[in-house]
């Protein structure tokens, strides 16, 4: 005897036919996706003026930790001296934080009150 299922078998779903979008000329149009990744937030290391740290020390610190030549370092130091603060460099967050620590440790070891901070670039 032949047994039949009470319901006929359900046909396997058929994938809808998809075609690349075509214009009238038959060429393929690639759809643009809006870019989802933003460039990372960058951080500027800002050095602050004080009345006690020797200018020469600041110049050497800027040369050493911010990879500036002596003339550029001197200009940055003078800007800080005159304006109260100045940007020594712009980096990713972790690199900027490391620069701040390096400067503060060098200043601490030398007994100078030199301060610098990292802040997000606008
Ligand atoms: N103002 C300091 C002086 O006259 C020099 C100085 C410059 C200190 C820059 C800190 O970030 C600084 N000796």
TrEMBL record:
Bias-annotated ranges (Basic and acidic residues): 19-34
Keywords: Hydrolase, Protease
Alphabetical GO biological process terms: protein catabolic process; proteolysis
Top-level taxon in the UniProt lineage: Bacteria
Listed HAMAP family: ClpS
Its job: Involved in the modulation of the specificity of the ClpAP-mediated ATP-dependent protein degradation.
Name under which the protein is recorded: ATP-dependent Clp protease adapter protein ClpS
């Amino acid at each position: 005897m032949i047994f039949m299922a009470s319901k006929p078998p359900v046909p396997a779903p058929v994938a809808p036919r998809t075609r690349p979008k075509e214009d009238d000329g038959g060429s393929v149009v690639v759809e643009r996706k809006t870019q989802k990744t933003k460039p990372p937030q960058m951080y500027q290391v800002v050095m602050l003026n004080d009345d006690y740290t020797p200018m020469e020390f600041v110049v050497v610190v800027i040369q050493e930790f911010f990879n500036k030549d002596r003339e550029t370092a001197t200009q940055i130091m003078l800007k800080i001296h005159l304006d109260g603060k100045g940007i020594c460099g712009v980096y990713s967050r972790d690199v900027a934080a490391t620069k701040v620590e390096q400067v503060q440790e060098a200043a601490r070891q030398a007994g100078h009150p030199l301060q610098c901070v990292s802040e997000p670039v606008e």
